[in-house]
Amino acid sequence: MLRFSVIIVSIFTVLFASCSNQPNIKKVSESELAFKKFLTKFELLKLPLKMTPGRMSVDHYPRLDSTNKSFTGYKENETLYAFGMLPDTSVCFKLIWFQPADDYYPVLATFTKNGKKIKQEDIGVGGCGVDCCFECKEMIAIQKDMSIYSVDSAKYTTCDTSCYEAAERYIEYKTGKITRGGKIKISAEQRKNIY
Q1: Calpha distance 33→95 (Å, rounded)
Q2: Which of 5, 9, 142, 194 has its CA 20 to 30 A from that of 168?
Q3: CA Rg, the chain, in Å?
Q4: Is residue 1 exposed (0-12), middle (13-18) or buried (19+ Cβ within 10 Å)?
């Protein structure tokens, strides 16, 4: 009986010793808090997603301030704009923001759950711009399977008074995919003449 009592007391001692009144609280670093604040700038997007960057006004999207901008890796003093977050955030975050050049262009970046950047890519082709007798339309599509298709459709004519002679029509495009783990694979730009 004494042996049984010793065993029972030992079991209860181990059980009570393993319990404590202090909750098991995970400490969150300042960097993780800043990343969570950064995420609040991005609204959740719906797929399939179609973007036309050259025709989009970025002014109504949230601005990324200097604290938030640190996660983008952008070092210049110009303003960046948060566009949105692609769905399925169970493994990583997939964010799109606009960065300045001649015009604002979209950048896609993936991050781990605690804010470490996995990969960043410019997802637009970037061939559109302004020139004499040059017309161009940009389009970026991201499908539910996370495949990416980005295309610039252009028409260029000899720059004379008519702008109609010898029109050259072509598309420049690239394709890609975002893996479940957050890697972004984008092809090199391809060009296809259209007659």
Answers
A1: 17
A2: 142
A3: 26
A4: exposed
In the chain, count H helices and then E strands.
Answer: 3, 11
Measured CA to CA, the distance from residue 107 to residue 148 in angstroms comes to 13
* 71 or 165: which leads in pLDDT: 71
Give the three-state DSSP class for 9. Answer: helix
Percent of the chain whose predicted confidence (pLDDT) is above 70: 78
Does residue 178 register a pLDDT over 90?
A: yes
> In 10 A of CB 82, how many CB atoms?
22
**What's the chain's average pLDDT?**
83
Q: Choose between 24 and 88: higher pLDDT.
A: 88
Q: Which residue has the higher pLDDT, 187 or 18?
A: 187
* C-beta separation of 192 from 154 below 8 A: no
Q: Are 112 and 137 in contact (CB under 8 A)?
A: no
Using pLDDT thresholds of 50, 70 and 90, give the confidence band for residue 165: low
Among 183, 164, 55, 173, smallest CA distance to 123 is for: 173
Q: Among candidates 53, 120, 50, 65, which has minimal Cα distance to 92?
A: 120
Look at the alpha carbons of 57, 61, 66, 68 in this order and tell me if their dihedral is positive or negative.
Answer: negative
Q: What tokens were used for 115?
A: 């804010």
